[in-house]
Amino acid sequence: MNYTNKAIFLDRDGVLNRERGEYTFRPEDFDIIDGVPEALIALKKKGFHLVVITNQAGIAKGLYQKSDVLACHELLQKTCSFCIDHLYYAPWHPVISESLSRKPGTLMFERAIARYKIDAGLSYMVGDKERDLIPAKKLDIQTVSVAENVKADLHISSLPDLVPLV
Question: What is the pTM of this model?
């Protein structure tokens, strides 16, 4: 495989929308972080594919439905002028159902890499938890943390800070 496209992989909660400390599945609770839409559009203009990779265990737990997740993602896309290429989500939880898709597994990343012919070495994963970055490290994707206590290649305070660095 000699892929040449580059991507920014993005965790959802804590990177794109505010982390509430509980499941975010209602559009009215989906608070997009200031500057995120503009940052996504700027990253897209720099030639990056934009791919959201998110665990949504509340589905497996019966707390909400896939349609709730999709409603939040539709709001995100509208707010960001539909610049996100794909939003992958893992609806499983290890207590209820095992899956290689769920982070720290790599399957959601691998699907995006194959679909968009992404060169992992030219790409970045932005997360706020160690589990977000583990699969990126396994795949040689550069890691970016928006949390100070998470080990990563780069640290930023929020997504807009990434734009001038890539």
Answer: 0.93
pLDDT for the residue numbered 154: 97
CATH topology of domain 6-165: Rossmann fold (3.40.50)
In this prediction, residue 16 carries a pLDDT of: 98
For the chain, where are the alpha helices, taking DSSP H only? 36-45, 66-79, 107-116, 130-138
Tell how far CA 98 is from the center of its chain. Answer: 20
Query: Is 11 part of the annotated catalytic residue set?
Result: yes
CA neighbours closer than 13 Å in the CB half-sphere of residue 85: 22
- What is the DSSP-derived secondary structure letter of residue 127? E
* Residue of 11, 68, 128, 132 marked active site: 11
Helix (H) or strand (E) holding 124: strand 124-127
- pLDDT at residue 103, as a whole number: 74
Regions of the chain with pLDDT less than 50: none
Segments making up each domain of the chain, as ranges: 6-165
Helical packing angle, 107-116 and 130-138, nearest 10° = 50
